């Protein structure tokens, strides 16, 4: 199970890598026009709309990314299947369509279906599409239906499967959503403790998309709290209104960036540059704009225990801020931009104490994450099993900088593997080719090593890995071109 979650976490790296750029675009646009959200500036509108073009469709990115990452072949039809699955569910369970299915008025449709287009649905769609692709992508249908054989069959099966999933969700989703709303209303009466519980469950529910149910209770006027609206309108109680927002600032501006630093420092030496390129971007997005999903998804599935720790610390932060009546608010998210804007509002109460609290949490996050990562060998970015290659000291990856050299190298490796007659499948991780072969005795390791690769790792009767280095993607692409099946 843990291995499966780690594979899922690695699959999410593809969509996660897109998110920091979107967050920064929105953050810069929001900084240019903080009050109008782009309506008062052409440049701001351009940047915000560009960023939102990605952020508003995060579930689709996950549906496609997971479908690609969880399949053996990393093939286009798998991605198409993930998208098909997501579109089926979100269309069938759209509010208007639910009204038709249940023969009720649109106004009577459970508000749960307003949030059906969430990350949870995207991930489920991707996982189902990947499972179907791995199982049925090589199925041969009778001659009359041969056009739909193999890879073309998978999107059709995905659509049919997601119809069944939609039927289940039609009855299950409102019950789950309504239960969370009721739970939120119950803990709202617990004062500072309730704020802490809300913060904890908000983070825990992020992977499912159901955190919106809790947010509706506390941030908007579902149960009479309307924390965001009242704070920004100045209608509330000083030190009380804003308690369901304030505690996020120490976490998003300081805690999570410190966690990113800990993950960078614990990354393997050969992966530090790769880890830095991801973690620096997502940490900056979290600090500036409060967009935390890119950072959270980078370790959420790779190290779920760390994510639970993060959720607990978030709850503690909200509890402390609410206990001492330190308040600040956000209209977008709890980043630096919203902090500076909200700190001047009438209901902001000792907001700069949140900075002090954030510095404390930065220390806690850094040392706690670093200790847990090393102690339990959590597979955070830069520490994945796929990069446990035993590369000898002094050996380096091949000096190939041009496309022709990659092609020549790939051709020699493929010949050494035995070509089409012997190679069953080709995959790659961050630094090595992962291959399945029919006969290991037919592999010419000397010929492969002559290309200059740092090493070869035989991991099973039919599994072999060729350690290439950070240029592996270019080599893998060339190998795929050589394969007749591809």
TrEMBL record:
Broad class of the protein's primary localization: membrane
Keyword field contains Transmembrane helix: yes
Pfam families: PTS_EIIB, PTS_EIIC
CDD domains cross-referenced by the UniProt entry: PTS_IIB_glc
Membrane topology: Multi-pass membrane protein
Keyword Transmembrane: yes
Span of domain PTS EIIC type-1: 1-385
Keywords, in A-Z order: Cell membrane, Kinase, Membrane, Phosphotransferase system, Sugar transport, Transferase, Transmembrane, Transmembrane helix, Transport
Active site residues of this protein: 429 (phosphocysteine intermediate)
Subcellular location, record wording: Cell membrane
Matching InterPro entries: Glu_permease_IIB, PTrfase_EIIB_Cys, PTS_EIIC, PTS_EIIC_1, PTS_Glucose_EIICBA, PTS_IIB_1, PTS_IIBC_nag
Domain (PTS EIIB type-1) ranges: 407-486
Gene3D superfamilies with a match to the protein in the record: Glucose permease domain IIB
TM segment ranges: 12-32, 44-66, 78-95, 115-133, 153-173, 179-201, 244-263, 275-291, 297-321, 352-373
NCBIfam families: EIIB_glc, PTS-II-BC-nag
PANTHER family on file: CYTOCHROME C-TYPE SYNTHESIS PROTEIN AND PTS TRANSMEMBRANE COMPONENT, PTS SYSTEM N-ACETYLGLUCOSAMINE-SPECIFIC EIICBA COMPONENT
Protein's UniProt name: PTS glucose transporter subunit IIBC
Source organism: Oceanobacillus caeni
């Amino acid at each position: 199970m843990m291995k499966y979650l780690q594979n899922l976490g690695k699959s999410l790296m593809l969509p996660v890598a897109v998110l920091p750029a979107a967050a920064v675009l929105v953050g810069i646009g929001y900084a240019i026009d903080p009050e109008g959200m782009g309506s008062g500036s052409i440049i701001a509108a351009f940047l915000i709309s560009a960023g939102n073009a990605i952020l508003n469709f995060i579930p689709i990115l996950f549906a496609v990314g997971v479908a690609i990452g969880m399949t053996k072949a990393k093939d286009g039809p798998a991605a198409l299947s993930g998208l098909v699955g997501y579109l089926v569910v979100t269309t069938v369970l759209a509010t208007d369509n639910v009204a038709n299915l249940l023969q009720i008025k649109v106004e009577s449709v459970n508000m749960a279906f307003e949030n059906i287009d969430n990350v949870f649905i995207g991930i489920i769609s991707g996982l189902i599409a990947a499972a179907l692709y791995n199982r049925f992508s090589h199925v041969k249908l009778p001659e009359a239906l041969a056009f739909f054989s193999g890879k073309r069959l998978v999107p059709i099966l995905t659509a049919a499967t997601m119809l069944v999933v939609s039927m289940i969700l039609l009855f299950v989703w409102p019950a789950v959503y309504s239960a969370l709303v009721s739970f939120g209303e119950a803990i709202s009466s617990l004062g500072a403790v309730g704020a802490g519980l809300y913060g904890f469950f908000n983070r825990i529910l992020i992977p499912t998309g159901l955190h919106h149910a809790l947010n509706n209770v506390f941030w908007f006027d579902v149960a009479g709290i309307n924390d965001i609206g009242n704070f920004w309108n100045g209608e509330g109680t000083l030190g009380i209104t804003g308690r369901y927002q304030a505690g996020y600032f120490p976490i998003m501006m300081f805690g999570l960036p410190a966690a990113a630093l800990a993950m960078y420092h614990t990354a393997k030496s050969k992966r530090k540059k790769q880890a830095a390129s991801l973690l620096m971007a997502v940490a900056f997005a979290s600090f500036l704009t409060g967009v935390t999903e890119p950072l959270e998804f980078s370790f959420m599935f790779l190290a779920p225990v760390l994510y639970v720790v993060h959720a607990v610390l978030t709850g503690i932060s909200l509890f402390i801020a609410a206990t001492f009546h330190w308040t600040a608010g956000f209209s977008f998210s709890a980043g630096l931009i919203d902090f500076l804007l909200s700190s001047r509002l009438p209901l902001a109460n000792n907001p700069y104490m949140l900075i002090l609290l954030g510095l404390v949490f930065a220390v806690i996050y850094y040392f706690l994450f670093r200790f847990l990562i090393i102690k339990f060998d959590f597979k955070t970015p830069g520490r994945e099993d796929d990069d446990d290659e035993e590369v000898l000291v002094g050996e380096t990856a091949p000096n190939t900088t041009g496309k022709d050299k990659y092609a020549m190298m790939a051709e020699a490796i493929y010949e050494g593997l035995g070509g089409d007659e012997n190679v069953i499948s080709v995959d790659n991780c961050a630094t090595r080719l992962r291959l399945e072969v029919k006969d290991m005795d037919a592999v010419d390791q000397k010929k492969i090593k002559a290309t200059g690769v740092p090493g070869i790792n035989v991991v099973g009767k039919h599994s072999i890995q060729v350690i290439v280095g950070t240029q592996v993607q270019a080599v893998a692409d060339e190998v795929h071109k050589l394969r007749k099946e591809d």
